[in-house]
Amino acid sequence: MFEARMAQASTLKKVLEAVKDMVSEGNFDCSEEGICLQAMDVAHVSLVNVLLRAQGFEMFRCDRNLALGIQLANLSKVLNCAGKDDAVTVKAEDEGADTAEFMFESSKGDRITTFELTLMDIDSEHLGVPEDTTYTAVIKMPSTEFRRIISDLSTIGDTVTIEVSKDGASFQVSGDIGKGNLCIQSNTAADKPSERVEITMEEPTKQTYAMRYLSFFTKAAPLSDTVTISLSPDVPLVVEFNIGEEVGYVKYYLAPKITE
Amino acid sequence: GSKQTLLSRFFGAP
To answer: CA of B3, closest CA in chain A: separation in Å?
Structure first.
């Protein structure tokens, strides 16, 4: 038996918004630790890794590990029926269940909506993401600022070169209409920690990425005030959004473009 | 020009 209750259905809704344009389906792996989703885009260039820790739920029970194979567009339809302040409870029988139940409860407890979502068998190829990678450059900034940079620059071109040097971090883009270069610098004096920009550099780093995927990653901005972007030569970029203090995270990995 | 690499080049199957 699997049963988990989250006080804010909106968190789950935001998680889904953060992944559904990039991947169409995935296995939600449930264990005592929590709920984990790892999925790649169709081109196998980027990967999203979501973790919702058990302690982030009001109630969490998972007797046996199970994978809920879900078509994300369908889950999105169900979650769109949740009210802004609704709580959500997810239930499933053990492995082999054909459906999962989603129940939304209004904060006053006077409105309860229940859906049975059809599950599917998904052969998901799990990649082993090394956890001990050290990155030569890390940029922490407000997630709204990251979203704005990617949104602005993606109108100019479809590839972006991120360069971190002693002068700051620059985002260089070129396209048919011309070129753009946006440079940001550390600003650790901002009043609120969430408004600070912190650039840490072990060594100057310059890598090129497909803009399209970075645009997908900005869909997670509503989940977190800040985003951390970590890069190193010739390894995938990591873009990380933490959910709450301890609730979990959405991490995206993007393979770099390499000059031939 | 630059070439898009695949994630499998960096991340192996566990």
So the answer is: 5
Tell me whether residues B7 and A44 touch, CB distance under 8 A: yes
The per-residue pLDDT for range A165-224, each reduced to its tens digit, is 999 999 999 989 999 999 999 998 888 888 999 999 999 999 999 999 999 999 999 999
Give the A-side interface with B, CB within 8 Å: 40, 43-47, 125-130, 159, 208, 210, 235-236, 253, 255-260
User: Which chain B positions have a beta carbon within 8 Å of A44's beta carbon?
Assistant: 6-8
CA-based nearest residue in chain B for residue A238: B7
For residue B8, the distance in angstroms to the closest alpha carbon of chain A comes to 8
Per-residue DSSP letters for chain A?
-EEEEES-HHHHHHHHHHHTTT-SEEEEEEETTEEEEEEE-TTSSEEEEEEEEGGGSSEEEESS-EEEEEEHHHHHHHHTTS-TT-EEEEEE-STT-SEEEEEEE-TTS--EEEEEEEP--------B--S----SEEEEEEHHHHHHHHHHHTTT-SEEEEEEETTEEEEEEEETTEEEEEEE--BTT-SSGGG-BEEEESS-EEEEEEHHHHHHHGGGGGG-SEEEEEE-TTS-EEEEEEETTTTEEEEEEEPPEEE-
Cross-chain residue pair A259–B1, CB shorter than 8 Å: yes
- A124: nearest CA partner in chain B: B13
Q: Which residue has the higher pLDDT, B2 or A5?
A: A5
Dump pLDDT digits (tens) for A216-236: 999 999 999 999 999 999 899
